[in-house]
């Protein structure tokens, strides 16, 4: 298969509708500007892949882990990332409406300037030491239901009808209890004053 200048397998600008990618590891593949509607990725890991400006309607990621993956300016609805580990994933400037981030773990990832209308982050765990950033994102009707999160930045977001409930079930086992609570307070302070449910 052809490779681009960075040595990635080049699947850019292709119509890959309804394809099924299956394997142990999918690594160093560029899907730049490709049509991935109704595609399923079924593997242990996706690493070092580029989905910049791809169309990702109804894509299902049945993977244990996505690592060092770029979704900048990707667009789609009903994308399913449930039960994945998202490690160093860049979603900035993407439009992922009504998407599913249920029961996933996220580290060192970025959601700045995203349009996430009606997406669900149910029982997600945000495990990064540094804050998870949603700066300037449209979070209308987004649901963070029973999430574990202690650091985050929602500055300049649109948060109408956003719901945020935090799971405190392990808070008393946290060695740095004061720091944990202070981080949550700082995160909540970044939320705008428009309509939301906390």
UniProtKB/TrEMBL annotation:
Gene3D superfamilies: E3 ubiquitin-protein ligase SopA. Signal peptide: none annotated. InterPro entries: Pentapeptide-BTB/POZ_domain. This is SopA family protein. The lineage of its organism: Bacteria, Pseudomonadati, Pseudomonadota, Gammaproteobacteria, Enterobacterales.
């Amino acid at each position: 298969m052809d490779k681009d200048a960075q040595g990635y397998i080049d699947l850019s600008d292709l119509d890959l509708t309804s394809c099924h990618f299956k394997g142990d590891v999918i690594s160093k593949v560029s899907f730049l500007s490709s049509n991935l509607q109704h595609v399923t990725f079924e593997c242990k890991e996706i690493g070092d892949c580029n989905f910049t400006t791809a169309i990702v309607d109804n894509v299902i990621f049945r993977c244990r882990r996505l690592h060092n993956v770029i979704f900048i300016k990707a667009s789609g609805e009903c994308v399913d990332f449930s039960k994945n580990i998202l490690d160093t994933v860049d979603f900035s400037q993407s439009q992922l409406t009504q998407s599913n981030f249920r029961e996933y773990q996220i580290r060192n990832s970025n959601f700045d300037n995203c349009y996430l209308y009606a997406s669900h982050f149910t029982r997600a765990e945000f495990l990064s030491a540094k804050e998870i950033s949603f700066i300037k994102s449209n979070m209308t009707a987004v649901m963070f239901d029973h999430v574990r999160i202690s650091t985050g930045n929602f500055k300049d977001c649109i948060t109408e009808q956003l719901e945020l409930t935090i799971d405190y079930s392990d808070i008393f086992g946290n060695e740095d209890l004061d720091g944990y609570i202070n981080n949550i307070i700082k995160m909540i302070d970044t939320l705008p004053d428009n309509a939301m449910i906390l």
